[in-house]
Write a structure and sequence with these properties.
The protein has 404 residues and is an alpha/beta fold. The protein contains 14 helices and 13 strands. Helices cover 40% and strands 15% of the residues. The structure holds 1,3-dihydroxyacetonephosphate. This is Fructose-bisphosphate aldolase.
Length: 404
């Protein structure tokens, strides 16, 4: 490895000092030869110990090992209500519990395709019909338990209906309690919209900063932060415009994460795939989506990030799988695991199969298992579309201005 010798002048008039060459030195600094100014790097005040970093990077890697991805089952009460309404089931705590019990009690082999499950607060403390906590059922399957930490959007005044995400107040205390209760990762979804004057630089900066504050607080409490800056698919913009905006958003997010001293090896990114807007008349192939997506990621996401787990953003189950497969076959360098963290695209056909009836448990679990396996294959670039897709799996799951 190249190392400058002490006293050697570096580009820009900087000069290496003895400190910089000492691996034990806590302060890495460069000295400006011509002015005598000292520039001290933040390394002097480490944010995390070596043990904390090791724990965080091991959790992150476990979640995305061998084509595994994440089930985002963290729909808030209101969002779950919309899902249940579609299948004409009442939105009660018991109905929400019953559906989730069916998902979580699926055969143990689910742990070959699902590495983590994100829960909503209510679900973390719910139990199955035998009185066993859901979180213990998941852990016994070897699945990492996560929690939704953001608390919804608040308007950014003076913008075209843009938002910033709430939830930083008391976040450290919440994270500490969740860690004690067996949670190992968190999720925070920031929403950026493509429209007239959107996303504004204010919305980009504000959301990037909140994501970085959240990520730093998570890591201090032993939780791997899933960083989710979602450019939502509402609008009639084309693929190229979505790519441009996604790059600007991701570049701002990684600048903020660096400013906040977030340890990237102990994070996961959950971005949108680069797609045309829902109302765009031009249609694009999975290969075009893949090329635009990987190009945007390649330009903005450091190789230190262990995994990128896409959200499904209203794509049909089948499209979400086909696009992920094409992304993994894209002939550009891909230094990260490219996997999934789907909500709608892992649960839509399971919800349809369930229809609120306990007797449909087997069919519900089979539908869920089928999507999980298909996405695991896609995360390795090995998915083969059989051509016999169910109606539920090809149906668009788009909802305008989607909230979680
Ligand atoms: P979808 O896959 O339904 O877009 O949701 C994933 C998610 O967790 C959004 O925050």
């Amino acid at each position: 490895m190249w190392q400058p010798k002490a006293g050697v002048t570096l580009p820009g008039g900087w000069c290496a000092t003895e400190d910089m060459l000492s691996p034990r030195s806590p302060a890495t600094h460069l000295e400006r030869c011509d002015t005598g100014l000292v520039f001290t790097m933040a390394h002097r005040f480490p944010a995390l110990t070596a043990e904390q970093k090791k724990e965080l990077s091991e959790i992150a890697q476990r979640i995305v090992a061998n084509g595994k991805g994440i089930l985002a089952a963290d729909e808030s009460v209101g969002t779950m209500g919309n899902r249940l309404q579609r299948i004409k089931v009442e939105n009660t705590e018991e109905n929400r519990r019953q559906f989730r019990e069916i998902l979580f009690s699926v055969d143990n082999s689910i742990n070959q395709s699902i590495g983590g499950v994100i829960l909503f607060h209510e679900t973390l403390y719910q139990k199955d019909s035998q009185g066993k906590l859901f979180r213990n059922i998941l852990k016994e399957k070897g699945i990492v338990v996560g929690i939704k930490l953001d608390q919804g959007g608040a308007p950014l005044a003076g913008t075209n209906k843009e938002t910033s995400i709430q939830g930083l107040d008391g976040l450290s205390e919440r994270c500490a309690q969740y860690k004690k209760d067996g949670v190992d990762f968190g999720k925070w979804r920031a929403v950026l919209r493509i429209a007239d004057q959107c996303p504004s630089s204010l919305a980009i900066q504000e959301n990037a900063n909140a994501l970085a504050r959240y990520a730093s607080i998570c890591q201090q409490n032993g939780l791997v932060p899933i960083v989710e800056p979602e450019v939502i698919p509402d609008g009639d913009h084309d693929l190229e415009h979505c790519q441009y905006v996604t790059e600007k958003v991701l570049a701002a997010v990684y600048k903020a994460l660096s400013d906040h001293h977030v340890y990237l090896e102990g994070t996961l990114l959950k971005p949108n795939m680069v797609t045309a807007g829902h109302a765009c008349t031009k249609k694009y192939t999975p290969e075009q989506v893949a090329m635009a997506t990987v190009t945007a990621l390649h330009r903005t996401v450091p190789a230190a990030v262990p995994g990128i787990c896409f959200l499904s953003g209203g794509m049909s189950e089948e499209d979400a799988t086909l696009n992920l497969n094409a992304i993994n076959l894209c002939p550009l360098p891909k230094p990260w695991k490219l996997s999934f963290s789907y909500g709608r695209a892992l649960q839509a056909s399971a919800l349809d199969a369930w229809g609120g009836k306990a007797a449909n448990k087997k069919a519900t679990q089979e539908a869920f298992m089928k999507r999980a396996l298909a996405n695991c294959q896609a995360a390795k670039g090995q998915y083969v579309h059989t051509g016999s897709s169910s109606a539920a799996s090809t149906q668009s799951l788009f909802t305008a201005c989607y909230t979680y």
